[in-house]
């Protein structure tokens, strides 16, 4: 019964939280509308999600988000420093292929989104077989170090979160 009403409970919680953050005030009407959105949107989109994400360790999500937020703040300062103080001739932009061990589409999407949210990097494509991401880096003097950092810092944690 609950699964029929909330086919994607995590999505429902995220929708409620995002709506409340968007309205930027805690009012009963806003909360009621957020709950309505949190129930209706997953119900309407459920037919398009044949499989639901299998989370092995959802308790690790807050830690992952903390790392991502820390990296976003740090990368903002790094990109500002590059843009303001580094001569353009010293920039070393690069296209990097990140081989994937992740197989779940939701986990791959989370990794691609994390890379794109971090200033200075942009996920541009997923290979047809789903085995690699193409990433553009604003400044990559050592492309292999960036691949290793993404795999160690993000992909390894997402493998722990997703089954």
TrEMBL record:
Q: What is any one of the record's Gene Ontology cellular component terms?
A: plasma membrane
Its annotated compartments are: Cell membrane
Q: How does it sit in the membrane?
A: Multi-pass membrane protein
Which domain of life does the protein's organism represent? Bacteria
GO molecular function of the protein, one example?
A: monoatomic cation transmembrane transporter activity
UniProt key word Transmembrane helix: yes
Give me the segments passing through the membrane.
5-22, 28-49
The family assignment reads: Belongs to the CPA3 antiporters (TC 2.A.63) subunit E family.
Q: What is this protein called?
A: Na+/H+ antiporter subunit E
Taxonomic source organism: Paracoccus litorisediminis
Organismal lineage: Bacteria, Pseudomonadati, Pseudomonadota, Alphaproteobacteria, Rhodobacterales
């Amino acid at each position: 019964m609950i699964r029929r009403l909330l086919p994607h409970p995590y999505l429902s919680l995220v929708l409620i939280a995002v709506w409340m953050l968007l309205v930027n005030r805690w009012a009963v009407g806003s909360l009621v509308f957020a709950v309505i959105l949190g129930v209706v949107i997953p119900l309407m989109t459920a037919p398009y999600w044949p499989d639901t994400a299998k989370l092995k360790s959802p308790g690790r999500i807050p830690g992952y988000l903390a790392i991502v937020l820390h990296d976003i703040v740090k990368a903002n300062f790094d990109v500002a420093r590059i843009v303001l103080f580094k001569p353009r001739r010293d920039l070393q932009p690069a296209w990097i292929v990140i081989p994937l061990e992740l197989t779940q589409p939701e986990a791959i999407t989370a990794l691609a989104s994390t890379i794109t949210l971090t200033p200075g990097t942009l996920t541009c494509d997923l290979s047809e077989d789903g085995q690699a991401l193409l990433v553009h880096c604003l400044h990559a003097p050592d492309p292999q170090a960036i691949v290793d950092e993404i795999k160690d810092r993000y992909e390894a944690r997402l493998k722990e979160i997703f089954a």
